[in-house]
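Open question from group meeting: does this chain pack into something compact, or does most of it stay loose? Before anyone orders reagents, we agreed to write out a predicted structure and look at it together. Recording both the input and the output here so the notebook holds the full record.
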Amino acid sequence: MPRYVAAIDQGTTSTRCMIFNHSGESVAVHQLEHRQIYPAPGWVEHDPLQIWTNTQEVIREAMRKAGAEPEDIAAVGITNQRETTVIWDRHTGRPYANAIVWQDTRTDKLCEALASEGGQDRFRERVGLPLATYFSGPKIRWMLDNVPGLREAAERGDALFGNIDTWLIWNLTGGPEGGAHVTDVTNASRTMLMNLQTLDWDPEICAIMGVPMSMLPQIRSSSEIYGHTRPSGPFRGSIRVAGDLGDQQAATVGQTCFDVGEAKNTYGTGCFMLLNTGTEIVHSRNGLLTTVCYKFGKQPAVYALEGSIAITGALVQWLRDNLKMIDSAPEIEALARTVDDNGGIYFVPAFSGLFAPYWRSDARGVIVGLTRYVNRGHFARAVLEATAYQTREVLDAMKADSGVSLKALKVDGGMVFNDLLMQFQADVLGVPVVRPRVAETTALGAAYAAGLAVGFWQSTDEMRQNWGVDKVWEPTPGSQASTVLYAQWKKAVTRTFGWVE
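Structure tokens returned:
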């Protein structure tokens, strides 16, 4: 009898394989970082072959650490950085170029041109998204226009597109030798090319975007068997590949937010809050995205409102790598604790423009309020506070769209082990912040989707029984974080507008 489910969590900065038991506990994990490539200002790329190499290595190591054989694994699920765009040759498996990462802003002029007719919300009614550099559709078009020979290859039927989930599933299930070219509804909903109601590619939008539909993967549910791993591959056996969720949707499933009105916030490279709106498509009037939350097998699709923040954990990395103020990311908390407050400075990290709720690609990062009093500790504190303020802006937009007042916020991701940040988050929101026992809920969500498809877990109720509270942060009585300080933050945000002509 299989004892475990494996999950591959392919993120913006690293790839990991985690192996979970039936109680949703991690029994083994292995993780590797990959290179961030910056060919020009605003451009961000990854090497898809390095990601595939790292994926194979983390699978082998996690299996070794768990002492697991192929027959111990019931299924494997995939979760991935969304919108990051790969195009490769179906015959050789070679990418035509580096992957264009979700943070990349090179498609800004293309998005402006597409918005010249019908505005930024030209396709929003059908796809739930504004025209923005964030999404895959414009990235595909840019590659077709700028990579020599690619458009011809696409029109011949040789070129395949996928977000990272599709790239990994194709390689795991055989690659050029019969690999499954599939994606799930959550990842497809991030391309700007999928109709939210039909859950199919929209032929009219594909034509306007200039994307041949022959390149696109088949859209499937988030929880079903897509294919089997090859015995020659890293699992060393035939295992069902049966779960596929974009990373933020996976975290929502891992947090068991299965009821309408339940929300979670993931603190990673960026920050992403999702609110379950059930089987109803709720269109945002306040700068949020309407997206597919999950679809389990033949059950109806469940939708969500999402607030996407581009730079949160990435700002801590920037402080470490570019300014050398800290040697490792966890040091930021100790540095921030050397001061009592932010010293009057606010850091708005609009490195890739502003995402929700503003959608301003003309914005760039600012630090305001500098005086000679300010030191490294204030910088560290302002960096952490920026994450909490941006989360509050998204929550305000969600409340305005949905009419739902949040009672508590479930949190996950790497930054939730920073007590100072989590306490400040509770103060800024004015509601309790709750960390579950398993904080790596993204990988767990992918495992749940795969396990549900093969009967390892029988129902969402069974998954919910695995969820438990690790720690709760209550708002500090009398804190000015949600009033005076937040008002100063809003003022700082306006200083980022219109920087890029």
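Observations to bring back to the group:
The longest helix spans residues 376-402.
The chain has a mean pLDDT of 93.
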